[in-house]
Amino acid sequence: PGGGGSQTFINAIQTDAAINPGNSGGPLLNMSGQVIGVNSAIATMPSLGGSSGSIGVGFAIPSNQVSKTVEQLIRTGKAEHPIIGVILDRQYQGEGVRILGEGEADQEPIVQGGPADLAGLQPGDIILEFESRPMTTPDELVVAIRAMSVGDEVDLRVRRGSATLNVTMTLQGRTPDS
After folding, report:
1. pTM summary value
2. What residue ranges of the chain have pLDDT lower than 70?
3. Nearest Cα residue to 134 out of 94, 163, 171
4. What 3-state class would DSSP assign to 70?
């Protein structure tokens, strides 16, 4: 929480609660006093001199995600993020989210033995829907995957050429340092 310039993908709760450097990590409460999230990030205006403080928009990690991660840390000492095992085409502008094609990256676009491979996905396939939700950007797909749990079975709608396929896959885990 509160990390500098690193990229984070999570289905966050947006809040107007005052979150500033130093008080992230505290609880986000609803009107009944129930913890619904952990304050973790603030939106700031770009400035030449570094941090400019909160502009009134903050983000909290939802409590269901927090409890999932806490349980993993207590049980195994590590947190696992669910993955599908593909490299996404960040240049693709069409409908859906495209898996890189063969030879378009330094490594294979689909991890052998990973969820996408086991489900029969192929390089160049376009993921149109994840769990019945239309996907429009790679980041949106990553956030949707991260909202799930390792071992969850998920449904995708995929375009391959002119065909549309319904695919079911089981998410695998990856620790942040692997």
Report:
1. 0.69
2. 1-11, 20-21, 23, 42-56, 175-178
3. 94
4. helix
